[in-house]
Amino acid sequence: MTPTQAFVGGAAVITGAGSGIGEALAMRTGALGMPVVVAELSPDRGERVAGAIRAKGGQALFVQTDVSDPASVRALADAAFEAYGHVRLLVNCAGLTVMGSICDTPDEVWDRVINVNLRGVINGVRAFVPRMAARPEGGYVSNVASLAAFSMAPNNGPYFATKHAVLSLSECLYLEMEEYHWPIKVSVVVPGIVESRIFADIAVANEAEEAHRQMLQGAMKSVGMPADEAARRILDKIAADEFVISTHPRFSRILATERSEYLRDLAKPRTSSTDFMSGPGD
């Protein structure tokens, strides 16, 4: 089934839609003819994306949203259903990353990463899924994790831990939808390196972290997949009812195989032998 066929009959709600993958998903769903609700914390970014969709002849509504706040996400759902009647596609895309060791990362940073990356997805699911499932046609819910959900690394514990949790949450949600016979198709997105602001927005505490941040930004500029291409792949695979949706299938298979072998062998943790920052990995 094509995205045009799959997503007919309702709006798309994209969180974190002010940049990167979220922005590209918002623009592509608008081009499909879907009304788009641009959910974004930054008014400047959100209004810019909504305006760009309207400038191309689409329908778009910007709703300022803090995904870490359950009340803010419930207000987002109210606005989306009031404006467009039904939400056909929800992508919980908002996320952030940090640098630093587990012990040195401040409490407030831990809280922010957990509240955005994990609670943001939980809040989106809880606010939208029951209302989407109340109509016979149901809809699609896709939660954005990362290839980090298949791997491990030092000095990025909050990000990796929350992305593992998003994968697990999505698996549980998939099984619940089957058990309850709710008409919701669930997927989890595990992007590789895709052009976005994620490294530009990292707060660093010292020169070593700044050097690492600049290295990551450089890798993204040199080998990062264009966000629009990632969005095209993601929407095609959501429409095809795939569960694990990868922008970089070869790296995903390598990392998933390494992890399954590590768990099978009850081995000690080790960093991956594959650097998914090094190339496209198609």
Q: Would you write up a description of this structure?
A:
- This protein is an alpha/beta fold and 282 residues long.
- The chain has one domain: Rossmann fold.
- 50% of the residues lie in helices and 13% in strands.
- The chain contains nine helices and seven strands; from the N terminus they run H-E-H-E-H-E-H-E-H-E-H-E-H-H-E-H.
- The chain has a seven-stranded parallel β-sheet, with helices on both faces.
- Helix 2 runs parallel beside helix 3, helix 4 runs parallel beside helix 5 and helix 5 runs parallel beside helix 6.
- The mean pLDDT is 91.
Biggest sheet strand order reads 3-2-1-4-5-6-7
CATH architect. name: 3-Layer(aba) Sandwich
What string, H for helix and E for strand, traces the elements in order?
A: HEHEHEHEHEHEHHEH
Give the strand tally: 7
CATH class: Alpha Beta
- Backbone structural class: alpha/beta
Cα radius of gyration in angstroms: 18 Å
> Which bin fits the share of residues in helices?
40-55%
Distance between the termini: 22 Å
Number of domains: 1
Which outline best applies?
Answer: globular
